[in-house]
Amino acid sequence: MPPASVGVGLKPDHADALLAAPGAVRWVEIHAENVMRAGGPAHRMLEAVRRDMPLSVHGVGLSLGGADDLDPDHLARLAAVVARTEPALVSEHLAWCGTGGAFLNDLLPVPCTREALDIVARHVAQTQEALGRPILVENPSRYLAFKGEEMDEPAFLAALVARTGCGLLLDVNNVHVSACNMGFDPMTYIEGLPLDAVGEIHLAGHAVRTVDGVEIRIDDHGSAVPDAVLALYAETLRRTGARPTLIERDSNIPPWAELSAEAARVAALMTEGLGETPARASA
């Protein structure tokens, strides 16, 4: 995976255009749960694309932060996806999404306590053993604070990295969303992370809603990356150096020309921020 490179989520509507004229896009990411069943169009599309460019596998249903044990069947299916696709990167969320056998179809927050850290560290270690490789753990978007938290989230993630040897997927949009919702400084958050552990960066758009007179930002991946997130990304790169960067777009999917142009903008921002000469990208 080239460090100074931009990727996008692999979507059926874009696969042919991506292969014909990738432009600034150098790699793709898939959600593991979308290819856990054998065969079918999704697998054929994936095989066609991964022959030409690197791949990142992003899990959304493992529930690393859940109080229950990991689902062994889900973990086995994830391991099978990783073995079959041989991705450059594998990632999951600092979140939980089920309990008591019920799957809640959401990424729910984890309290930053020592007890939760023990649970997440155990689950990360179990996952890494099953996959035979380190994973990246993504920082969540936050909408509320827990009473009784014993550390802030950067300290929680730093401790997780130290205990398990995992890396971090730094979602800059999630930092921005959380900072606006919770009232903290986003660069202070980022500077509190072990930045040498960052193996991938995510960028995305978000929605803004007003509820009972309070403005709330919602991480929905439904629009172009806003200027405020791009500015935070540029500041982050000055501290991390080049990192593979994904543009997430999971709703309101734009035409390929629009997404490719956005990837070119991020690629130019990356090279300019790192003091490099931007490469000319085809349209």
UniProtKB/TrEMBL annotation:
Q: Which InterPro entries does the annotation name?
A: MbnB/TglH/ChrH, Xyl_isomerase-like_sf
**Please, which domain of life does this record's source organism belong to?**
Bacteria
Do you know which Pfam families this protein is assigned to? MbnB_TglH_ChrH
Chain segments annotated as transmembrane: none
Q: Which family does it belong to?
A: Belongs to the UPF0276 family.
Q: What is this protein called?
A: UPF0276 protein GHC57_14420
Q: Which organism is it from?
A: Roseospira navarrensis
